[in-house]
Design a protein that fits this description.
mainly alpha, two-stranded antiparallel sheet, 9 helices, elongated
């Protein structure tokens, strides 16, 4: 058994203690990884492949948000350990880091490892651009799943109209499709919520980077606000962040439109218009 030794913060105990905390970062960050696969409970679902693709987006955003908050909390805890030899210092540092993790945990983690301002800008820009690509994937995955459900419902109605299904059979099949689509929407809502949280982190990071540089005299529209565009590479971060905000909101709008169309889509009496082509929904065309 190891006995805790008293001593000053510069003693052996103070130096060794952070080594116990650091491995936690790897556990928290890598422990959330997963791949998009068809789950056993989706067996027999004609749209299982499309749902698996949307679950892939869900896994990505679960991992991304948790990583930001976890790094904020753990690094905050490390700060408490380094600045004082007390449990109170650790608690204060962890609480501060966790609080920052809700909004600024991502930027704080980036600042910890960036060698200078230019490296920080480049790192954030790379992440925002990558995030925008992930939003495109999620938008396309949802559009494909939505269209798969709506097409299946239209086929049931066609079979009923042609007399190939009784009203009871058609109603049961539509009820099953609606139940599955409700589960799809739940996944999409979770993705959208985590996507929005991540977008707020990028917006916060962009705002902080702007504060560090002089304005060029030109302005960019970011949501409902006008912000001065910095003279350096931070402008690229601002532009990418603006795109990120628009893509995130577009995803949320697509989900809401699908919710509005669902009652008619899964009703024998209901009609549904042409769905938006998946490429257009994802912003590809």
């Amino acid at each position: 058994m190891v006995t805790r030794r008293s001593g000053s913060p510069s003693g052996p105990t103070a130096v060794a203690r952070p080594l116990v905390v650091l491995p936690m970062v790897a556990v928290i960050v890598t422990g959330c990884g997963s791949t998009a696969t068809i789950r056993p409970d989706d067996a027999g679902d004609s749209c299982a492949t499309e749902r698996a693709e949307l679950r892939g987006a869900e896994h990505y955003y679960s991992r991304a948000v948790v990583e930001g908050a976890a790094l904020g909390g753990v690094l905050g805890g490390l700060t408490g350990l380094l600045v004082g030899d007390s449990k109170r210092g650790t608690a204060i540092g962890t609480a501060a880091g966790a609080l920052a993790g809700g909004i600024g945990g991502y930027l704080m983690a980036k600042q910890r490892v960036a060698s200078d301002a230019a490296a920080l800008n480049d790192s954030v820009l790379k992440d925002v651009v990558g995030e925008n690509q992930e939003i495109d994937k999620a938008t396309l995955a949802f559009a494909k799943l939505r269209d798969c459900r709506f097409t299946a419902a239209a086929m049931v109605k066609e079979d009923f109209s042609a007399g190939r299904l009784t009203k009871g059979q058609a109603a049961r099949q539509l009820d099953d499709l609606r139940r599955r689509f409700d589960a799809d929407l739940q996944i999409a809502d979770e993705v959208g919520a985590k996507m929005e949280k991540r977008a707020k982190e990028f917006r916060y990071a962009s705002d902080e980077l702007i504060k560090q540089e002089p304005a060029s005299g030109s302005y960019a529209e970011l949501g409902s606000e006008r912000q001065a565009v910095p003279t350096s590479r931070t402008a690229a971060v601002v532009n990418a962040t603006q795109t990120n905000q628009l893509k995130q909101r577009a995803f949320a709008d697509d989900v809401q439109v699908a919710k509005n169309k669902a009652p008619a889509a899964f009703s024998l009496e209901g009609q549904i218009g042409m769905t938006m082509p998946v490429c257009r929904a994802a912003g590809i065309i």
